[in-house]
Design brief:
Helix content: 25-40%
Radius of gyration: 41 Å
Order of helices and strands: HHHHHEEHEHEEHEEEHEHH
Structural class: alpha+beta
Number of helices: 11
Bound molecules: adenosine-5'-[phenylalaninyl-phosphate]
Largest sheet: 7 strands, mixed
Number of strands: 9
Oligomer: single chain
Strand order of the largest sheet: 1-4-5-9-8-7-6
Length: about 350
Amino acid sequence: MLENIKKSFSKEIKGISDLKNLEHLRVKYLGRKGELTQILRSLKDLSIEKRRQIGPLAQKLKKEIEEILTKKLKNLKTKNLELKPIIDFTKPGEKIKLGHLHPLTKIDEEIRQIFLSMNFSVVEGPEVENEHYNFDALNIPPNHPARDMWDTFWLKEPKNSKFKIQNSKLLLRTHTSPVQIRYMETHNPPFQIIAPGRCFRYEATDASHETTFHQVEGLMIGKNITLANLKGLLTEFMKKFYGNDVKLHWQPSYFPFVEPGLELLMGCTVCNGKGCSVCGQTGWIEVIPCGMVHRNVLENVKLDPREWQGFAFGMGLDRIAMMKYKIDDIRLFYSGDLRFIKQF
Ligand code: FA5
């Protein structure tokens, strides 16, 4: 009987290759109702002679089986560890590399927050515009010399384009000013908005010009809005954005869609006003072109200039960012160079 148990156990253990089956085997022989356990339990019913004869043999077999099972258990555990990846909980953690916002996105967000705090709304307009919104409605008719300033990328028009208006050609917008028209056409004054977004110009790139860049348009229309309101608002913005020490200077300028037109200049932060390539050796840099909305523009959107007035501005976001971070080349923003990007 014991001999049979030994034989069958030796045979079965050879075929065991996992912990679950090993446990089943243990239970089969040594469990509460196991084959060997039954024999050990029945010893008490045997005669003394038989007990003396079988008892030690059964105990010996039990010990042997236990030893084989323990050895097999150890083997299987080591094998399992080799298969599974070993996790070393004492190893110092690896730093997870997190990305961050692009400097231009950060500046965009900062500008939005300042204007939101001054009760402006943030709106958007399409990057693919048409000639009507980008030029004509802004008092820049065909053949007007001002169009030269905004040479652009013209687009082939798809059939049945929803942007097409009265044979108006499609283009990549050269500035965010068309959003003024779109907003005034669809909203009743009074209102105050900013419209940040991407613009495109067909021009040679240099340290302060890119073919793709960003502007933030501003527009405030109401009753009795004056140039004083414009100057007050932009001065407040500049102080909030650059700090109270920012040096500002106003000078007259010309844009067909404003009258009078102005340009807000700030002391160049790259050279601290001494003169450098960024500020054209003048110590000053033009940051916010602006002015009072031209009466022709108001009439183009069916607003009566005797009743409604307002101002508009269009700051170059890239330039604003360059002055904030003292960056001397706009092309760095778009270079994808991680040595530059990681500094922010
Ligand atoms: C305009 O685009 C007018 N629409 C601004 C305006 C709005 C005036 C409302 C009055 C009322 P200008 O072409 O100067 O103006 O461009 C405005 C700003 O955009 C510039 O001061 C400059 O910061 C930025 N800018 C223009 N061209 C480029 C370019 N190629 N690369 C980078 N920034 C540019």
